[in-house]
Amino acid sequence: MLEANEGTKEIAEEIQRRMDQNPDRTHRIGTFGFIELEDTWGDEATILNTARVSTSNRRLSGPEAFSDKDRALLEHLLAEEHGTPFETVWFRFRFIAPIFVLRQWVKHRISTWNEFSMRYRKPISAFYIPDEKARTVNGFEIMTQEQTDRYTSLLETVNHFYEEEYETICRRIDDLRQRGEIPQKEAGRDPYRARARELLRSAMPVANYSDVYWTVNFRSLLNFFNLRTKETAQYEIRQYALAAYDLFGRAYPLLRSTLERTRHREPSGSA
Ligand SMILES: Cc1cc2nc3c(=O)[nH]c(=O)nc-3n(C[C@H](O)[C@H](O)[C@H](O)COP(=O)(O)OP(=O)(O)OC[C@H]3O[C@@H](n4cnc5c(N)ncnc54)[C@H](O)[C@@H]3O)c2cc1C
Prior knowledge:
Blueprint: H1 6-21, E1 26-29, E2 33-41, H2 44-51, H3 68-79, E3 90-98, H4 99-105, E4 112-115, E5 136-137, E6 140-141, H5 145-178, H6 191-200, E7 209-217, H7 218-228, H8 235-251, H9 253-263
Antiparallel strand pairs: 1-2, 2-3, 3-7, 4-7, 5-6
Helix pairs in contact: 3-9, 5-6, 8-9
Bound molecules: flavin-adenine dinucleotide (FAD).
């Protein structure tokens, strides 16, 4: 059984704290996955105010001030896919997801990424283990429990490998320092330990979790929802996309209901 490293325990505590403090803006996904809508900028009024720049001096204070005419305009803009007014509303999500999910997510280039690099701290020592639902297609178990146990054991071995090799390198660095063969550590980052982390991170599997801030405007977020909440999207990223959609909808109920009217559907599946 793999024991979580200190940084991973801290992240687990942080996730629990955020879930307790912010239940309407957080979702847990699987055993270690997490998403939070941390911040937003602008609202439905921002969209209409910017869209009316040429046609009116009227400015709305917020969605609560909307008349039927305003709601109809919002629907029209969405239905006709007017682009730029929807770029004026911004979202910042924080999520903790397996690296293979991040590789799909990062393809959504019209957004800003800040990702945990593993250069300054050790990797998150938690990895994705598919549950029964993830392992089953049309009632057929693609990956059996026995295979999942072997998968888990392999990933534990790789995570152990990192911890053990890093410890060995750190002991050697301390030893060489004691003997005066390498310079003493100065304030700030230790270049020897840092290089060890840089080299060893290459061994980390794509099933391991990483930590990301994702900042995105609503137009690009909508494209993400359209592509990644579909049945054709891979199961794991779909869970995150559905959770992000739910968090967006709670923060922007008017925009969500207007969107679902124009698209005549809401994403199916549970977050
Ligand atoms: C089911 C599924 C399977 C996929 N399989 C693969 C795969 O096998 N391999 C793979 O590499 N990717 C794959 N993708 C990723 C996919 O090709 C897109 O890169 C990804 O979905 C991001 O979409 P996007 O380009 O619309 O988003 P963004 O990069 O956020 O771009 C948003 C929009 O901006 C415009 N735009 C952005 N950049 C440019 C540009 N350079 N030139 C012109 N217009 C631009 C486009 O209108 C684009 O739709 C898959 C996606 C899905 C949903």
